[in-house]
Amino acid sequence: MPRPALLGRPDRQKQHPYLYWEFYLTSGKRAARKGRWKALQRGLHKKPPGPIQLFDLAEDLGETRDVADAHPEIVAEIRRIFADAHTPSDIWKFRGL
Q: Greatest CA separation found in the chain?
């Protein structure tokens, strides 16, 4: 079924509370986008995994400034999103988590 945004009708696209994605290759990564915020965590195959980086896309579209230390409440929310959105799999696993 075609999606409205792909057909040039973004006004009819269902809005989601957040977007979440994972990459299992190389060092393992996951990311989430919620409103103006994008969070990225690398090194998920390491113990401990890398820190969560936070970017304010309204101010920094190029993702050059990590503002996680200035917004611990957003980082905590992203941690909950990471936990809720991840689906465990016997095939795909992050070794560091």
A: 44
pTM for the whole structure: 0.79
What does the block give as tokens for 24? 């299992």
The two tokens of residue 95 are 């070794």
DSSP string, the chain: ---GGGGT-GGGSPP-S-EEEEE-STT-EEEEEETTEEEEEE-TTSSSPPPEEEEETTT-TT-----GGG-HHHHHHHHHHHHHH----SSS--TT-
Question: Does 54 map to a domain?
Answer: yes
How many domains is the chain built from?
1
58-67 per-position pLDDT tens digit: 999 999 999 9
